[in-house]
Amino acid sequence: MLCPLTAPCICLCRKGAAITLDEIRAQVKQYVQDNNLQTNDKRIVQLEPVLARIVLAKNEYNSQVTWETLNRRVLSKCQSAYEIRIPHREPILKEGAIEPITINVATRCGNKKVTLIHGFETFGIDPGHFAHQVQVGVSASTTVTPLASSNKKWQQVLIQGNQVNFIAKLLLETYKIPRNYVRGLELAPKKK
Length: 192
Fold this sequence. Notes:
The chain is an alpha+beta fold. It has helices at 21-34, 49-55, 67-77, 127-138, 164-174, and strands at residues 44-46, 64-66, 81-84, 92-95, 101-108, 112-118, 142-146, 155-160, 182-183. The protein folds into two domains: 21-79, no CATH class; 101-187, SUI1-like domain (Translation Initiation Factor Eif1, 2-Layer Sandwich), CATH 3.30.780.10. Helices cover 29% and strands 22% of the residues. Keywords: Initiation factor, Protein biosynthesis. It holds the Pfam family SWIB_eIF2D.
């Protein structure tokens, strides 16, 4: 998302608008071309007051920077955000980094294992429906409870036994959640 500092450089967007990294880079490149800031060395960009205010630190007085430095510093001034698109619903735009679905395996009385999963809400998955799918799929008891350690209104699903393999298949194949947004897949029981 654009902050007030970067908005003048990225001309076509208003403050707080959500745009992709590629769009930001393209806008910066267009701004440099429109203001004739490209030097003879194609790797170097001349800084004018607007760009200097965005990319230079308070005690820095450079008149030129490389493209890599320019893009990195402009991006560092923007807020990170993500958009979740769920079929038949409006896209959800949220600020900050995306929180992954977390899977834990805990041992309860004796040697009984339970699988705990939370973080569904980020991806628009209903915990009650997910718990029912797991209950039917592995014939195990499931419970949905509020997540105590979270200030968000997240729910946690508790499943009897170590069901990481089934949960991984359900999340990755059925719900099409990218693997890098699911933590705890390494807790699956080893095949004998």
